[in-house]
Amino acid sequence: MSNLFGLVNGKLIGEAPLYVNRLRRPGATEVPKSTLTKWIRNSPFVLINSPNFAWALIALLIYQYNPYPMNVTSPITYDFMTKRIQLWLPTVLGYSTFWYSSLYSFNLGSRPFIPDRKSNYNKLAHNIFWTTSGICIWTAFENVFCYLWSTGRLQYSHDTFSFVVALMGIPLWRSFHFYFAHRFLHFGPLYQQVHSLHHRNTDTDPYSGLCMHPV
Predict the structure, then answer these.
(1) Exposed (0-12), middle (13-18) or buried (19+): which is 148, by Cβ within 10 Å?
(2) CA 142/CA 157 separation, integer angstroms
(3) 53-63 burial string, b = 16+ CB within 10 Å, else e?
(4) Cβ neighbours of residue 124 under 8 Å, at least 6 residues apart?
(5) For residue 202, is pLDDT > 90?
(6) CB of 192 within 8 A of CB of 206?
(7) pLDDT for 215
(8) Which tops the pLDDT comparison, 14 or 161?
């Protein structure tokens, strides 16, 4: 139980992954290599033994209390965008701010990749700006999908069983999607214009995830 749901030894913050050799400097431990056999064996449990569980709970709460409107008449509408952005801005920025504060304000992470790491406010402002752009882009995608559902161009399922299967399957789908999308991002022109930004983030902070690939 102490290592379920993304916890490490029962702790949410301050513990390195179990494979990390804490006697070595941060970043020096070799990451275990994944194999197809390990992936198949662990895949049924990825929703409950990783941070995917916390993200799924957040998604379920949002879905419960802020369901998608099914009367959208245009792929991009001012009313839809403003209402959903008001939902996503505090959710995403609040989540990132929690982790940023735990690292830099309360110093709960003791093994930074770069020793004596200090918060860089120029980088922070850059990352928050591009994270906010990513939230706006995501909301536009939501608007398009709600329009497709509302007009019957895409099927919208209300079946609970299908929903649970999809929820369990998303982390598995993501592992396939991420691998091939990542290979595609290393295609020369895409790497130079887009993905190189990701590789320049050598000391990442909690805001740097979405801002590196906002589209």
Answers:
(1) middle
(2) 16
(3) beebeeeeeee
(4) 100, 205, 207
(5) no
(6) no
(7) 63
(8) 161
114 pLDDT higher than 90: no
Amino acid at 202: T
- Work out the mean pLDDT of the chain and round it to a whole number: 86
CA distance 208 to 194: 14
Q: Which amino acid is at 168?
A: M
Place of tokens 């589209």: 215
Predicted confidence (pLDDT) per residue in 185-194, tens digit: 899 988 888 8
Instruction: Specify whether the backbone of 116 is left (phi greater than 0), alpha (psi in -120 to 50) or beta.
Output: left
Q: What is the mean pLDDT of residues 147-153?
A: 95
